[in-house]
Amino acid sequence: MFKRKSILVALLLLALLVFAGCNQTKEPDLPGDELTTRSVVDRHGDEHIVPAEIERVISYSPTFTQIILDLGLADILVAVDTNSERFYEIPEGVEAFDMMSPDNEMLISLEPDLVIVTDMTAAGGAEDPFALLKSGGVSVVTVQTPDTLDEIAQDVAFLAHVLGKKEEGQELAHNMYTAIDLYKDLGAAVESAKTVYFEIGAAPYSYSFGQGVFLNEMIEMLGAVNIFGDEDGWLAVTAEAAVALDPEVIFTNVDYLEDPVDELLTREGWQDIQAIQNNEVYLIDSNASSQANHHVIDALEEMAIALGLK
User: What is the domain extent for residue 96?
Assistant: First the structure.
């Protein structure tokens, strides 16, 4: 009887050891790779695998550079485009390059963890311009050009998440939405919509925009009407068309003339336009209105003030 019990106990112990061994094979230690990368999803639902710890970043656009700086991450920048260098205070020692023709070998030599690019740069030819970087194990994140304020807010939150500042990015986006709601209410109260011409390129090569551009959304949000609102995208503008449409208000964000407002007020052939006659020509901050990030709210405020909403 005792011998029989001993055999049963031995069999039971053997079964427990086998079971424990099975459990150990089903729950292996996590490989190192899973601890060094993470996944972030953009507004299109595309997944981006980025390093868990990001210490060296290359920014291909002033839009991205400004977000990085506002997140307090200036110290992780190792290279930026020349426009970023022109617009912002970039830390000493950070390389600057032409975003339209970057030297990929030079960029690789900087040993970046992450490169952030626009879709326009990423589509710069038949071949992937960043293939060399990617083959070297560098994470390249492409951000699609936003057409709306909502997409801008999503991109700000996305990039902050990529950079390990998820909560800070959500706060920036939240502040954007709060401001947007405020200006929507102000615009909804407008009883008589003013017509607006927004010039982003001065004569003789004047440029503006129509539908599908976030600046058009901003004009309409403020209860005004873009004189080219029936057109689509970015537009080359003729003097004849602008004069014929006779805007009541003119905005300009041109930053390469000494006095873009005076240039418009004294532009030959434009003297009969209502905005010119009534001195309703306003300079809108070029950086705030052209960089698709949370600072567009600053431009929105300037536009609201010019239209008499604040």
Answer: 33-145
Residue with tokens 């949370």: 294
CA distances from 288 to 46, 55, 72, 86 (A): 28, 27, 19, 14
Task: Say yes or no: 132 and 207 in one domain.
Answer: no
Residue-wise pLDDT tens digits, 54-67: 999 999 999 999 99
Q: What share of the chain is helix, strand, coil (3-state, %, to 5)?
A: 45, 15, 35
| pTM given for the model | 0.86
Q: Which residues lie closer than 8 Å to 218 by C-beta, 6 or more apart?
A: 149, 296, 299, 300, 303
On whether residue 241 sits in a domain, the answer given is yes
Would 14 be classed as within a structural domain?
A: no
Determine the Cα–Cα distance for residues 20 and 157; give it in Å rounded to an integer.
45
pLDDT digit string, tens, across residues 132-151: 888 889 999 999 999 999 99
